[in-house]
Write a structure and sequence with these properties.
The protein is α/β, with parallel strands linked by helices. Helix content is 48%, strand content 14%. The chain is built from 22 helices and 15 strands. The strands form 4 sheets. A 5-stranded parallel β-sheet has the order 6-3-2-12-13. Strands 10-9-8-7-11 form a 5-stranded antiparallel β-sheet, covered by helices on one side. It has a 3-stranded mixed β-sheet with strand order 1-15-14. The longest helix has 32 residues, at 456-487. The protein is globular, with a radius of gyration of 28 Å.
Length: 556
Amino acid sequence: MLVNYKKLSAFNDIFVDYINDFNSVSQYYKYDYKNDDNILNIIKHISENYSNEFHYSRQNIANILKEQNELFNSDDKAFENIELLKNENTFAVVTGQQVGLLSGNYYTILKSINAIQYSEYLNCAFPEYKFIPVFWLECEDHDFPEINHLHIFDKENKLQRLEYFPDDAPQEKYLTPADKIHFKDNIEGFKDKLFGMLSQTEFSEEVRNIVDRSYKSGLSFSVTFARLMNFIFKGKGMVFLNPSDKEIKKALKPIFERELNSFPRTCETVIETSAQIEQNYQVQIKPQPINLFYILNDNRYLLENKSENIFSLKNSRQTFSREEISGLLESNPENFSANVVLRPVCQDYLLPTVAYIAGPAEVAYFAQLKKVYENFNVEMPFIFPRASVTLLENRINNFLVKNEISFEEIFDSESLKEKIINKLSEVNVEEIISEYVKDLNTAMWTFGSEVRKIDKNLETLVKNKSDKYIESLESIKKKLLDAQEKLYSGSMAKLNSVSENLNPEGTLQERKINYIYYLNKYGMNLTDFLFEEIELKAEGHQVILLNLSGQNENSR
């Protein structure tokens, strides 16, 4: 089932127009992602510029990726793809995400599926070239509370949040990049708690084994993330890239140097574009005067300019002269880190990228970056919107069918409650109250007309009394509905369970639920099932029924 994005409030306006009316936002993007012919234009530009880059070579990048993916336990096809990257006719389809705990929210899985699907699609459409999927591990982000937790449904189908802290308790402030945060022995207790909450199924042992083999004490968030993803996408050839690698940072020195020497040009460029966008849409990202961080003592600080020749680290007392910061870039480029504005440019400077698989928020913020790409003379790729998907379990689908509930209705809880109660009850409170209000308004209008013949001032008094009585009827209606809800508490409990499954904490499943929940319930074949079911170029939210054979549907 396909649901128009316009019918769901979860999607930003610029993303909706990007899908439905590209011409209205085309000025903010280099290419229309629906026009496959543009791929050849990207290829031409990359072929003319990428191979001439003297700071690094395809051979150099491939060697770095080979070493990284050995650490990530990548599959044979991934290493074949890395070898292909050495050839000038090979190009990358890139996606990326923060290295969330046990892969984070399952939209990460959707992005990965689309990157692999789109690579396969392009390989068929343009057989004279090769296209490989690359996952950019956003592991330099230091916002630990964004990646240290996950949500699953427990044995009673209740939404549960589980958090992991290396030292068993949260810190007051986090500045350490995710790549430098390592799991400790208490990860074993976290895994025990997770699998204790999940239903025991025929797949639980296999899934627990995969999690155990991926998440071990002493390993970083980035390594564990990539290893788990390699189990999930075994044989698909996904190549993982860790941008915090010292050799990667050496290749990125020209980007960092240009930002340091030309600031606040990037900031001004983004502000100029954002001002245009804000006439019709909300902007997603705010640039900084210098769009770089510096890592000092394993903490990541925003780089600021105090005066013409003095740089400082935000929220610290550390300062550098211009000569010192230039020297540090030359000797220790691994300590420099791009922010959200500069990261896409770094990614596409480093890789021969033809397309980036982007979520709705990313589609929106790429609109702010077209001129930034131009300033750095980097080709802006296709911004290909990832699939948006709700996974519909059988018990959920059965309830919807039985009660004639559409998917869109789930997102209006109050109206849905009334619908279910009215369906179950012989008394339709809404209709009764509405009819009574209608009759009352008619009667009061007639009465008011008669009063006006005697004293016009009293007509206002009559109307005010009528309005107050109607207000009191609304209060009575609510009490009646509450009473009906208690009367049909069993049905309401099922409705609440269904709503929580499809709209957990008021958002889409894909933005809340961890993929381990589904793997535990449906097995490792679920990923292959989704490859078959997810439509790459669907122009709407996809609702996919999980009708896998051998599925385990308890607590129906």
